[in-house]
Write a structure and sequence with these properties.
This is Abscisic acid 8'-hydroxylase 4. This protein has a domain at about 1-90 and about 335-390: Uridine Diphospho-n-acetylenolpyruvylglucosamine Reductase, domain 2, CATH 3.30.43. Helices cover about 50% and strands about 10% of the residues. The chain has helices at about 25-35, 40-50, 70-80, 90-95, 105-115, 120-145, 150-170, 175-190, 200-225, 235-245, 255-285, 285-295, 310-315, 315-330, 360-365, 405-420; strands spanning about 5, 55-60, 60-65, 85, 150, 335-340, 345, 350, 355-360, 420-425, 445-450. The structure holds protoporphyrin IX containing FE. Protoporphyrin IX containing FE (HEM) binds next to helix 11 and helix 16.
Length: about 450
């Protein structure tokens, strides 16, 4: 048994680790890792090496336990046990909004998730694929002229535009630029100190949130007056709002607004980072890139004038394994925090009410008893399905990533178009990651030079 209510504390001990210095605990080491180019996970990795797959630390006055065991992942995430609740940083909650699904409590979360997941139907995914493919082809065409490209910058533009189009049919260039800049300010503010005076990152983030909310409110007003009628997520949420007033279970405007912002923020940087890592790994592993290109060239959608049909993606099996292996190695969300609501026992350890248990997904993805040669990029390892709870790129259980299929589609379509159009060379081989980033991403954004296939 991995998580049980704790009724006999004598039988077990607390996890190994250090509480650090009085008052500050190990906060300074944590902050140092965040502001370093190895990334914040370095803090966890070092302690994992020292203490093993379950250790305790103290950060910002709070006891944290990091654990990289699949059976614990299963019992904590699998059933979203009522003994644990999702933990989030208060300032992030303020930037995303009280109604954001990412920060909501257990019951409220179930209500929001039920509504929002209705948006991710097969039909909406199918029309998304077509649009994303067109956008990708457009952006890759520009690369031919530019020759030198920073992958992350264009991946951010691509994922942002695709998600905004799907949610609210945004196409207008100026409006997109303004919104992308404001979303950037909000994301930047997420890990800053919550100081609320002009000039601080947090303040600028809050101001940007106000502008985004105002713009979205105007959009809703136009839709309600019937001036705009589109087939997108926003329209769906509003029409459900109109037609189904009887069961009293509808999303109000604040819930719609906060969750539109949440979807953009949860989807843009994560997917853009994953795309960037994919380009980087494939540059390093020419044999994988060559094999992949050969397979994708056989695909009938190798010409940019025929759009990829949804069913075809299922046929891109090796490409799907490249996507999975990228997600395993990059582990964009390194750990999942959950707050313990009562004393309990995890494995052989005693856990106290109020402690934060972090399921260490990256630790699981790099565990050599689960994945052979875990530091090597080997897509064919996914010829067989991974063992239960050993692939956690999108989390698991009741909080599994809602945009999982969307993200996979974006990565697959991008990959297909890239390898059937260009060869590329990464021009700056540095593997440092961005300081203070919410998700691990390459600091240099992965600059490449591209060579059109017809020239090589
Ligand atoms: C490669 C890209 C992505 C990765 C690696 C990723 C990863 C994750 C992970 C690990 C979680 C669960 C966190 C936890 O349990 O604490 C999550 C949640 C979530 N993701 Fe993603 N995500 C990606 C793309 C997207 C996209 C494209 C969208 C939507 C446009 C999205 C929307 C969400 C939402 C709404 C949640 C919260 C779900 C809930 O709490 O019920 N994600 N994501």
């Amino acid at each position: 048994c991995t998580t049980t209510s704790h009724d006999d504390s004598k039988c077990c001990r607390i996890p190994p680790g250090s509480s650090g210095f009085p008052l500050v605990g190990e906060t300074l080491a944590f902050v140092r890792a965040y502001s370093g180019t190895n990334g914040v996970y370095d803090f966890v990795r070092k302690r994992h090496l020292k203490y093993g797959d379950c250790f305790r630390t103290n950060i910002f006055g709070q006891t944290h336990v990091f654990i990289s065991r699949t059976n614990v992942a299963k019992s904590l995430l699998g059933s979203e046990s009522i003994d644990f609740s999702k933990r989030y940083i208060k300032s992030i909650g303020e930037l995303l909004g009280k109604q954001s699904m990412l920060c909501s409590s257990h019951e409220h979360h179930a209500f929001l998730r039920r509504h929002i997941s209705n948006l991710f139907t097969f039909d909406s995914l199918a029309s998304f694929i077509e649009h994303f493919d067109e956008l990708t082809v457009q952006i890759l065409k520009q690369w031919e002229r530019k020759k030198h490209v920073v992958v992350f910058d264009d991946a951010m533009k691509l994922t942002f535009r695709a998600i905004c189009k799907m949610i609210m049919s945004l196409n207008e260039e100026e409006e997109l630029k303004r919104l992308q800049h404001d979303i950037f300010l909000i994301t930047e503010a997420m890990l800053s100190f919550p100081l609320r005076f002009p000039g601080t990152r947090f303040y600028e983030g809050l101001q940007a949130r106000k502008r985004v909310m105002n713009a979205l409110r105007e959009k809703i007003a136009l839709r309600r007056k019937g001036f705009e009628n589109k087939r997108d997520f926003l329209q769906f949420l509003l029409s459900a709002d109109q037609s189904d007033k009887r069961n009293g279970e509808l999303l109000n405007d604040e819930q719609i607004l906060d969750n539109i912002l949440t979807l953009i923020i949860a989807g843009q940087v994560t997917t853009a980072s994953a795309i960037t890592w994919m380009v980087k790994y494939l540059d390093k592993h020419a044999e994988v890139q060559d094999k992949l290109r050969e397979m994708q060239m056989d695909c009938k959608y190798k010409n940019s004038d025929s759009t990829i049909a949804p069913g075809t993606l299922n046929e891109m099996q090796y490409a799907s394994k490249v996507v999975k292996e990228t997600l395993r190695m990059a582990t964009i969300v390194s750990w999942f925090p959950r707050e313990t609501l009562k004393d309990c026992q995890i494995g052989e350890y005693q856990i106290k009410k109020g402690w934060i248990i972090n399921v260490d997904a990256r630790g699981i993805h790099y565990d050599s008893t689960i994945y052979n040669d875990p530091t090597k990029f080997i897509p064919s390892r996914f010829d067989e399905d991974p063992k239960s709870y050993s692939f956690l790129a999108f989390g698991a259980g009741g909080r599994t990533c809602l945009g999982m299929n969307l993200a996979k589609v974006m990565m697959l379509v991008f990959l297909h178009r890239l390898v059937t159009t260009y060869r590329w060379k990464v021009t700056d081989k540095d593997w440092s990651v961005e300081k203070w980033a919410m998700f691990p991403r390459l600091r240099n954004g992965c600059p490449i030079t591209v060579y059109p296939l017809q020239d090589t």
